[in-house]
Design goal:
The structure holds two protein chains of two kinds.
Chain A (H helix, E strand, L loop, with lengths): L2 E5 L5 E6 L4 E7 L5 H15 L9 E5 L5 H18 L2 E5 L1 H8 L5 E7 L4 E8 L2 E2 L4 E4 H5 L7 E4 L12 E2 L9 H8 L19 H12 L1
Parallel strand pairs in A: 1-4, 4-5, 6-10, 10-11
Antiparallel strand pairs in A: 1-2, 2-3, 6-7, 7-8, 7-9
Chain B lengths: L4 E6 L4 E8 L3 E9 L1 H5 L6 H23 L8 E7 L3 H18 L3 E5 H7 L11 E6 L4 E6 L6 E5 L5 H11 L6 H9 L23 H16 L6 H27 L3 E5 L6 H14 L2 E3 L11 H6 L1 H6 L17
Parallel strand pairs in B: 1-4, 4-5, 6-9, 9-10
Antiparallel strand pairs in B: 1-2, 2-3, 6-7, 7-8
The chains are: A alpha/beta, B alpha/beta.
The complex binds zinc ion.
Chain lengths: 217, 335
C-alpha cells in the first residue's frame, strides 16, 4: 500500500506518506501557512524523497472536517481530484477523530475546535470510538455533560475557564497529525470519489438565514 | 507543429466548468455546471455557497469534459485554470483541482486571467486581427481593452464604481424581478420605450472610463418617486430607458476607442455580451462606422472553460508555466 494522508482542515498543514503499517514520512506546520500555496509543493517534495511517483499511490486519506471552510475545500478538492484521476481509493476521516487519536491517550477524550463566540466543533471519543455525534455547540454547556475523567484536546487554550475541571492533553499532542491520519484510514472502506464533500457541520450563513426565513413564512 | 490539447478548468464565480480545447481554437468539449438555481433564492451569488457547490461538482465536470472529448489524461498536453480575478474561495477549488491533475500526470500547469478567457472566447469562432479593441461587460467587469497584438493587453478604460452587469442586477431588484435580473431587463426593454431619459454618464471628455452608480440611483429614485405619488411605473419603459442609457455609453466609448486606436476589430466579451440591446446597438454603430464587430455566440458569452483553454495557448506557447505553488488571485491584473 502507498498512502498519502492530507490534513488542511485547521490552521495546521500536515501531510504524511505511509505503507499502511508505518508512517514513512510526515511533515506538519503549525504556523499559519497558506495551505493553497504550500500543500502541493510539500507533497511533491515528500514523494520525491521517498522515491514514490503519483502512479504508485493506492489510497488518499483526507481529514474531512469540521474545520476552516477554505482549508477543508483545498484539502477535499486536492484529495478527490487525485483519487479520481489516479483511479485510487479515497478515504475520509473526521478531523475531530484525528485530533482525539493524535492525542496519544487512552480513555475518554473530547476534541474541540474553536468556532468563535463560545461555540466549538466537538467530538467525544471513548477508546477511539465516537460517542453521540460530532456537533457545533456551546462548549460551556456541552462539557457539563461529560465525565470528569475526560481529557481535552484541540483548541483548549480558547476555552480556559470552561475546561478548568478537566485534564488538558499535553501541547505536544494537541495538533492533528497526518501520520496518525494515514494509519486511521489505512483499512477503512473508501467512499464514492465524485460525490465526496467535506463535512462543514454548519450551513453557510446565507443558507441558514434562508431556511430560517422559510420557516416564518 | 502539432496543436496542443489543453484541459481547462474555470470556477471563478458560480459556474463549475471544464473543457478540452485543441490549439486554442478547436473545442472538443465544453462542460458547464451552473449553480444559478441554487443562488436564485438569495437574489445573488453567495460566495460560501458557490464554493461548496464547486467542490461537489468539480470532478464530475472534469470527467465529463474528458469523456465528451473522447480523450484521456495521457492525451492532454497541459492543464489550464482560471487563476483570477473572481471569488477567492471559488477560484481555489479550480486551482486545487488543476494542481492535483498537473502533479498526478506531470503535465504543465497554466494560469489564465478570467478576462483574457472572455476575450479569447471570440477566437473559438473566428480569426482575430490586431490591433483591436475589446469591450468587456459582465457582472463583475466593465472595461475597454486595447490589444496591440495577440496576447498583449492594455486596459484603457474601466468602471469607477459598479460594473454594467451589477447595475442591471440592482435595477432588476428595484423592479422586484427574479435573479438573475440582467436578462429580464433586456427582455422587458424589447417592448418598452425610452420615456424616462435617464442621464448618460460620460465622465471627462477624453476618458474611456465608465460610471454606472449615478444611473442606478436615478432609476431607483424614479421608482420611489412614482411610488410616493401613487403613480404606476411601466416596467417595460423603465427597463428600456435604463438599457438605452447603458448601451449608448458603452457603444459610444467603444466606437471612439476603436477609431482613436486604429483598431481593426471591435470585440465584445463577458456575460453582458448576451444582452440583445447591446448587441443591436453595437451592430448598428459598427455597420455605420465600417468597423468589424466580433461578438461570441450566446453559449460562449457566460463563464465557461473553453474560453480559458483558448486563452491558455499564450502561456503554453511562451512556456510560461505556473508552479504547484500557484494561488488563487482574486484581484489579478490583466497584463
Ligand atoms: Zn466572467
Amino acid at each position: 500500500m502507498k498512502i498519502v494522508a492530507i490534513d488542511t482542515s485547521t490552521k495546521q498543514l500536515s501531510v504524511a506518506l505511509s505503507d499502511g503499517q508505518q508512517i514513512l514520512a510526515e511533515a506538519s506546520y503549525v504556523t499559519s501557512l497558506n495551505h493553497a500555496t504550500k500543500l502541493m509543493p510539500l507533497l511533491e517534495r515528500m514523494m520525491q524523497e521517498v522515491n514514490w511517483s503519483p502512479q504508485d499511490l493506492t489510497r488518499i486519506v483526507i481529514a474531512d472536517g469540521p474545520g476552516s471552510y477554505t482549508g477543508l475545500r483545498i484539502g477535499a478538492t486536492t484529495a478527490k481530484t487525485l483519487a479520481y484521476t489516479l483511479g485510487i481509493d479515497l478515504v475520509p476521516v473526521s478531523t475531530l477523530e484525528l485530533m482525539a487519536a493524535s492525542a496519544g491517550a487512552t480513555g475518554r477524550i473530547l476534541a474541540i475546535q474553536d468556532a468563535r463566540r463560545g461555540t466549538g466543533f466537538v467530538g467525544f471519543y471513548e477508546e477511539g470510538q465516537l460517542v453521540g455525534e460530532e456537533q457545533h455547540t456551546v462548549v460551556a454547556e456541552f462539557v457539563k455533560t461529560l465525565p470528569e475523567d475526560t481529557k481535552m484536546t484541540g483548541d483548549t487554550d480558547k476555552f480556559v475557564t470552561e475546561l478548568e475541571p478537566f485534564t488538558i492533553v499535553n501541547a505536544a499532542f494537541r495538533s492533528p497529525r497526518a501520520g496518525v491520519l494515514a494509519l486511521l484510514g489505512a483499512a477503512r472502506e473508501p467512499v464514492e470519489t465524485h460525490a465526496f464533500e467535506p463535512r462543514y457541520l454548519r450551513l453557510a450563513e446565507a443558507e441558514a438565514k434562508w431556511i430560517e426565513a422559510q420557516r416564518h413564512d | 507543429m502539432t496543436q496542443p490539447l489543453i484541459l481547462a478548468i474555470e470556477s471563478s464565480c458560480d459556474e463549475t466548468a471544464a473543457a478540452v480545447v485543441r490549439g486554442g481554437t478547436d473545442v472538443l468539449s465544453n462542460v458547464v455546471s451552473s449553480q444559478i438555481e441554487s443562488h436564485k433564492r438569495f437574489g445573488g451569488v453567495v460566495p460560501e455557497v458557490a464554493s461548496r457547490h464547486h467542490v461537489e461538482r468539480i470532478t464530475y465536470v472534469i470527467d465529463d469534459a474528458l469523456t465528451e472529448a473522447g480523450v484521456t489524461m495521457d492525451d492532454i498536453d497541459a492543464i489550464a485554470v482560471t487563476e483570477g480575478p473572481g471569488l477567492v474561495g471559488a477560484l481555489l477549488v479550480g486551482v486545487s483541482a488543476a494542481k492535483a491533475l498537473a502533479f498526478a500526470h506531470s503535465k504543465p500547469l497554466l494560469g489564465v486571467h478570467h478576462i483574457a478567457g472572455h476575450i479569447y472566447a471570440n477566437r473559438l469562432e473566428q480569426e482575430l486581427h490586431f490591433p483591436l479593441v475589446c469591450l468587456i461587460a459582465s457582472g463583475g467587469h466593465t472595461e475597454l481593452i486595447y490589444m496591440p497584438e495577440d496576447g498583449m493587453y492594455e486596459v484603457i478604460g474601466e468602471t469607477r464604481d459598479d460594473a454594467a452587469g451589477e447595475a442591471y442586477d440592482k435595477v432588476a431588484r428595484t423592479l422586484k424581478l427574479p435573479y438573475p435580473g440582467g436578462p429580464r431587463i433586456d427582455q422587458l426593454a424589447q417592448t418598452g420605450q425610452d420615456t424616462f431619459h435617464f442621464p448618460r454618464i460620460w465622465l471627462e471628455k477624453e476618458s474611456y472610463d465608465f460610471s454606472f452608480s449615478g444611473l442606478k440611483s436615478s432609476v431607483i429614485n424614479a421608482v420611489h418617486n412614482a411610488e410616493q405619488r401613487g403613480e404606476v411605473i411601466i416596467p417595460e419603459d423603465l427597463a428600456a430607458s435604463f438599457q438605452a442609457s447603458v448601451v449608448e455609453v458603452l457603444v459610444t466609448k467603444a466606437i471612439r476607442a476603436v477609431k482613436e486606436k486604429g483598431g481593426k476589430q471591435l470585440l465584445v466579451a463577458g456575460g453582458v455580451a448576451a444582452n440583445r440591446g447591446l448587441r443591436a446597438g453595437l451592430t448598428e454603430a459598427c455597420s455605420r462606422e465600417g468597423i468589424e464587430l466580433v461578438i461570441p455566440p450566446m453559449h460562449l458569452c457566460g463563464d465557461n472553460a473553453a474560453m480559458i483553454g483558448a486563452a491558455a495557448i499564450h502561456p503554453y506557447r511562451a512556456g510560461r508555466q505556473s508552479t504547484l505553488a500557484m494561488n488563487a488571485e482574486p484581484g489579478l491584473d490583466l497584463k
